Amino acid sequence: MARSLLKFPHLSLEPWIDDEVFVLGGLSEYDLAAMGRGAFAGKKVGAAQTNDDAKEEEVQTEEIDAEVYGCQVPEDRTAMTDSEVNAGSVSAAGTYTPSAARGGGDVGPGGGGGATAAAPAAVMRVLHSDPGMELRLAEFVRWAGMQVLAALGVSAASRPVVLGADPAAGSGLSAGAVHLAHPALLATRPVAALAISAASQGAPLLLAAYGAMGAQLGSEALLQDHSLATKGVLCVWDLSAPVHPKAVLVSEGSPSCCGFCPAPAGHVVFAGMEEGGLCVWDLEEPDARHPVEALPDAGGQPQGSLVCRRPAFTTEGQFDLATAGSPIVAVAAAQHAESRATPAHLYSVSAWGDVNVWGVNVLAPAEARALDTELGMRVGSCVRLMRLATGVKIGLPALFPQAAAAAAAAAASGGGAGLAAGRSDAGGVRAASLAVLPLQRGAFVVGADGGRLLKGSWAGVAPAPKEYVAHDHASAATLCGAGRSKVPSMVTSVSLSPHVPWALLSGHDDGTIALHSVGSSTAAAVWHGAAPGGALAVRWAPGRPSTFPR
């Protein structure tokens, strides 16, 4: 067998490519008809003439005599031609004297002495212009006025604020005052927060948040009463017509802070609650979608009713200890895009420094109908909140999270040192204010205890510095060691300059006001005791870049 196998020839195969191999593909019916083969053999192509395209039409259009006329309004020439003077000048009965021009004579027949001359035609042209020129000049002034107002940042449709008499009789800084009251609704409610709209389409809108009246009613009555008296209320006031609230917003919790979303979502209003929730309202929703509440008088008898708008989206019903474990002390809005779908981001901070970031989403009606089952979204609403970040780190723990965790564990065991010394980061940060930095994407600062501003970012790591303190360079030595504990104040307010985006103010509860730069940890200027009794709020003056009221 082995000898027989050796006699078989052994063949080896190698690949071979031949580009000249003829491949005959199938022919289509079009190819067979063009070649006259197959079923089309011996057949000819027939043609038919429908004469549809043999049409000739002639149109005779008479030419109209037209002249091209151009003009410049107002005329930018300093002199007029003779034809313009003759066409526009008006004859006057009086004469013109040099002494009259200097104020030493009269204009009239025979008035004054000396040589007389006819009044200049240009002067008469301005005083006695034809009606057509006055109309064109008025149209130009109307157009130019809109451009000037836009350049100055003033809305052409803005309405003035109605102010009454100054209660300080001229001794105060204000030119007047306006009293916003609704006795049946707001008689015994405390004012919790205020906000002014920056994009209200010309109407000067003010948002005021009022607490509930549950403390006056008592705990037993609070459990039994579900009327409007036990709910939080926000009122939108039109300061050009402040007789009644433009809109009344109702929440289940008691509001602690509020504000308007920036353009193009200026119709969206938000508020943070003392119970830890966050609510938004859509002012563009019709009143027919909201219930009508009865307003009782002091004796409990109904004396009227009004439409109470419920939140378009709320997180009050979402029980989450990470986001709703402490009161919301500040909420800030930042413009995200010019798109109406995702116009803004909301930054909220709790009393213990828990920072959450939400995205405002304005839906089309068809999209909103498909999301009616989303938790927290009211049926028929077109606005919702999307959680983007939770528990954002602020201050130095954002840079060294492992060291902060080790310091917290050491402080809990009684041997705290190092990072936990002189700081409250190990056991949580007490916060009272919040501001968004416009020059750094996703970055913000939180006003905390110890007189510090803590920086954080939900998009990556915030750039240095991580903290800002109310010390100038002359007293920078106090930053070492236990020097932080020598500043027991709380930063109650933070305000970013509308003119210089890298400058910000901080107000403290001990009356200190500090001017900070975003790029430096120490304050550029400090005013100790500038606000006796404590600074509740600091704001930059919109018309004067270097001035800020307190």
3D architecture notes:
- There is one protein chain.
- The chain is of the alpha+beta class.
- 16% of the residues lie in helices and 24% in strands.
- The chain contains 12 helices and 22 strands.
- Strands 1-2-3-4-9-8 form a 6-stranded mixed sheet. Strands 5-6-7-10 form a 4-stranded antiparallel sheet, with no helix packed on it.
- It is extended and about 115 Å long.
- It starts with a helix and ends in a 23-residue tail after the last strand.
CA-atom Rg in angstroms = 39 Å
Distance between the termini: 113 Å
Average predicted confidence as pLDDT: 74
The SS-based structural class is alpha+beta
Q: Unreliable segments (pLDDT under 50, ≥5 consecutive)?
A: 75-80, 88-127, 415-427, 473-486
Number of discrete helical segments:
12
- Strand ordering within the main sheet: 1-2-3-4-9-8
Helix content: 10-25%
Number of strands: 22
Q: Based on CA inertia axes, which overall geometry fits?
A: extended
User: Mind summarizing the main beta sheet?
Assistant: 6 strands, mixed
Strand content: 15-25%
Short descriptors:
550 residues; alpha+beta; 4-stranded antiparallel beta sheet; 12 helices; 22 strands; 16% helix; 24% strand
